[in-house]
Specification:
This protein is of the alpha+beta class and 700 residues long. Strands 1-3-2-4-5 form a five-stranded mixed sheet, with helices on both faces. Strands 8-9-14-15-16 form a five-stranded antiparallel sheet. The mean pLDDT is 94.
Length: 700
């Protein structure tokens, strides 16, 4: 157990991750002038450690090394040590993660960088054990080695740092070329097909990540091509994920990823961004297929978010840890004895069959792989197949499962919960607002709309500066850290979706205002594309443009689609021109491997078209207006912007922001739809069925 007799410079920080290390014997500093000035004054290198509060291996390295007084003594004598929360400072993390990948060919957290006092790196690694083992140098030996080199061969280390920094600065994702076309969409699909796991769903072998933007792209490709194989990939993956141990069958929500190919054994942390992005995939899949199991899963995800991840003010927390009581997954695992003690004999036997519990368990010790007798609850098949095998109706089965689930949930609530990272980040809240707004639209449920509005209003009240620009992090009544590209991109996306769910022009107006700030401070005027940091932000050793659509889509990918949608809504062609430049800037780089850029390809899908502008003009409370929206919202039309022009208020406020709808009015005093396809307009119609025909007319 860590002693509380130590207190370092992190004690006054707001980041939960930094506060976790505030009582280490290591003399940690936060990133800032004080640390670098101390390093220059004392002529010491910097030991930079980057992680996040719910990172399992960050905890392991902390317990092994940073809480050890002997290791701390070595670090304090040799370095000025800096801790960085990657979620609070993704700009720093991105730069030095690129360094680590350049130097070692891999990356991950905890990220360990050793660098000169002027921030230039000469050593990079991820997790480092305390003692040397299996040919891997331990931290104690490493520190001793670096201390010796710094004292005897410092010039060589500094030269190495200069070369690494120069190589980093010369990396460029920019190779402007021809715009990406439909062939690029086909090639993206083909590459996903090669990676697809036909047996278990998902892509690749192990570890297996949900990567929902792959599925969202495939839905659009299916809509475009009508390839049944594309829809099969989506449905198999969504169903296998929901059945697997990666899904929390008792409390809902998805864990971070599966360590195996079958979605069985998860890495147990739960991230807000995963919940939001996965929910979007299930919502759109429901809209496309009308399969109720997808809407049910999305609603369960939101139930988890509302219960565990929502602040009283309406913002959403960042993550829950994988560990509790010092053990990964302990909160989520079950023994046969526990189930027997909690349930009646009949219910216990049903639970064993449904959730596949055994005496030996399916969760093994991490180090030696021994059986633990602990089980990850999972399904081997769908409810429909299980009910058939057990010879009971699906309705009865679901009722029995729900009865068992509630009992287990109440029992689990009495356990020690995993640590919750309760900082509120603008970008992750933007993603959640997107998901909630889509749910409000597709499910016609004001609960989701009100939650989206409350979150958006929270961000605008607490994380927007007087000059209109965004901040990144809020915690403990304190907002700080200038916004990054993702804060603007994801929140603007959320505001666009919130406008289309509520038709409150305030949200569209705010999206346009923030987009102006984004273009002013993040756009590269020389070649195009968005930098991750603002032009007046802290100058690191390089200013990066991020494009890779990893666990979270890149800010450039989301901004590409935002620019297109805002252009279609407003009629502002300059925004479309910016989108065109952005697509060309990265085109040749993306052609090397489309798999890493599926969110970008979603924007390409919109740009290639067919894309739709749908304006509905009608009285706000009229039944024909409501029926028109109800019909449109029930259809899966991904490349559409939706504008409402209320005809019972004059002049409608939307006219101030959209330059082509002034004359769109009711026909024959009925709610009327105006459909434009690739900027060519169909005759107005008062018939919801005809509207859907127009919206489907150019798909193959």
């Amino acid at each position: 157990m860590e002693s509380k007799k130590f207190r370092n410079q992190l004690i006054n920080e707001k980041s939960p991750y930094l506060l976790q290390h505030a009582n280490n014997p290591v003399d940690w500093y936060s990133w800032g002038d004080n640390a670098f000035e101390k390093a220059r004054k004392e002529n010491k290198p910097i030991f930079l450690s980057i992680g996040y509060s719910t990172c399992h291996w960050c905890h392991v390295m902390a317990h092994e090394s940073f809480e050890d007084e002997n290791v701390a003594k070595l670090l304090n004598e040799t370095f000025v040590s800096i801790k960085v929360d990657r979620e609070e400072r993704p700009d720093i993390d991105s730069v030095y993660m690129t360094v680590c990948q350049m130097m070692t060919g891999k990356g991950g957290w905890p990220l360990t960088i050793i660098m000169t006092p002027d921030k230039k790196p000469f050593f990079a690694a991820t997790y480092i054990p305390k003692e040397s083992r299996y040919g891997m140098m331990g931290l104690k030996d490493l520190v001793i080695r670096i201390k010796s080199l710094w004292n005897s061969e410092r010039i060589k280390l500094i030269d190495s740092a200069e070369q690494i920094t120069m190589a980093l600065q010369n990396i460029s994702n920019e190779a402007p070329g021809d715009k990406l076309n439909e062939n690029a969409l086909i090639e993206t699909y083909n590459q996903l097909m090669i990676q697809y796991d036909k047996t278990n769903g998902g892509f690749g072998i192990a570890p297996k990540f949900p990567t929902p933007h792959n599925l969202i792209f495939l839905l659009r490709f299916w809509k475009r091509s009508r390839k049944k194989e594309a829809l099969e990939i989506i449905e198999t993956t969504l169903q296998k994920m929901r059945q697997g141990g990666i899904y929390d069958h008792i409390g809902y929500g998805f864990h971070r990823y599966s360590t195996d190919s079958k979605w069985l054994v998860p890495h147990f942390e739960k991230m807000l961004y995963d919940q939001a992005l996965i929910a979007i995939a299930y919502i759109e899949a429901y809209q496309a297929t009308k399969n109720l199991k997808y809407s049910k899963t999305a609603k369960e995800i939101f139930e988890y978010i509302f219960r565990e991840m929502t602040s009283l003010e309406g913002g959403f927390y960042s993550a829950e840890d994988a560990d509790s009581e010092g053990e990964e997954g302990k909160f989520y695992l079950w023994s046969v004895k526990e189930i027997n003690d909690l349930l009646t004999k009949d219910d216990a036997e049903l639970a064993f069959k449904i959730f596949n519990l055994t005496d030996t368990g399916n969760f093994k010790e991490e180090v030696n792989g021994k059986d633990t007798g602990l089980n990850i609850l999972h399904l081997n098949s769908s409810y429909q197949e299980i009910s058939k095998n057990l010879d009971i109706s699906q309705e009865d089965l679901e009722n029995k499962i729900e009865k068992v689930r509630k009992i287990l949930f109440e029992a689990r609530e009495k356990r020690i919960h995993p640590f919750k990272d309760d900082k509120i980040l603008t970008d992750l809240n933007g993603l959640t607002i997107v998901a909630l707004s889509k749910a409000a639209t597709v499910f016609s449920d004001l609960t989701y709309l009100n939650a989206a509005k409350k979150a958006a209003n929270f961000i605008l009240k607490n994380l927007r500066k007087p000059d209109g620009r965004l901040l990144h992090r809020y915690r403990d009544r304190n907002a700080d850290v200038d916004g990054y590209l993702t804060d603007y991109a994801f929140f603007i996306w959320g505001l666009i979706e919130l406008y289309e769910a509520s038709f409150d022009v305030f949200y569209l107006q705010t999206a346009l205002e923030l987009n102006e700030k984004l273009l002013k401070h993040y756009w590269d005027d020389s070649i195009g594309g968005f930098f991750f940091t603002a032009d007046d932000g802290e100058q690191l050793i390089t200013r990066q443009k991020e494009l890779y659509d990893g666990a979270i889509p890149s800010g450039n990918s989301i901004s590409f689609l935002n620019l297109l949608r805002l252009s279609f809504i407003t009629g502002n062609l300059q925004l479309e021109e910016k989108a065109d430049i952005l697509s060309r800037v990265f085109a040749d780089y993306i052609k090397n491997s489309y798999l890493g850029f599926t969110q970008f390809m979603i924007a390409v899908d919109f740009a290639v078209g067919p894309s739709y502008s749908l304006v509905i003009a009608g009285d706000s409370e009229a039944e024909d207006t409501k029926k028109m929206f109800e019909k449109v919202n029930s259809e899966y039309v991904p490349n559409m912007v939706l504008i409402y022009r209320p005809t019972d208020s004059y002049p409608p406020k939307i006219d101030q922001f959209s330059n082509f709808i002034e004359w769109f009015d009711k026909v024959n005093n009925k709610a009327t739809a105006f459909v434009c396809i690739n900027k060519t307009c169909k005759p107005p119609t008062t018939d919801p069925i005809k509207t859907i025909e127009y919206l489907s007319s150019t798909w193959k």
